[in-house]
Amino acid sequence: MLATMLATFLRLQLLSACMLFCLGAGAAWAQSNHDRTQVGSNISVGAHEEASDATCFGCSIRVRGHVAGDVTTFGGSIVIEDEGQVDGDATAFGGGIRLENEVKVKGDVTVFGGRIQRDPGAAIGGDVTTMGGPGWVLLILVAPFVILGLVVALIVWGIRRIVRPSMPAAA
Hints:
This protein is α/β, with parallel strands linked by helices. It has helices at 2-29, 134-163; strands at 36-39, 43-45, 50-51, 54-57, 61-63, 66-67, 71-74, 78-80, 85-86, 90-93, 97-99, 104-105, 109-112, 116-118, 123-124, 128-131.
């Protein structure tokens, strides 16, 4: 029973990783509007460069220029420096955000499973939210599988209870 549940859990993890990779790879090929999307390769927006959005799966983003949209990393960090500017939100899942002096983020700054390092001269137009530490990432990734496992165990228990023949009481 436990081996079957573990095998199912591992298959679901592999399927999730494949889906995430396909989404990232598909987005990397559709590079219209100066969007920058990478899987496993860092993104750098230079001092005189402009990008619409920057999204990174398993890598980090360094902004020295201007990003007209959002900056998002999954499993990486975001560094905004040298008067870099982000007109949208800066979000890091499983990584941190560092905002140096004279940078601007017009939207929200959000970190799950990391920390924010902010210079006092950095300007943030929206809210700052941090759920620091790896515990949050573990909770977010593992909790659905635990709930799924409990539901499967409940269904198996219910089926076994219905199918099991009743035993007469001992005299």
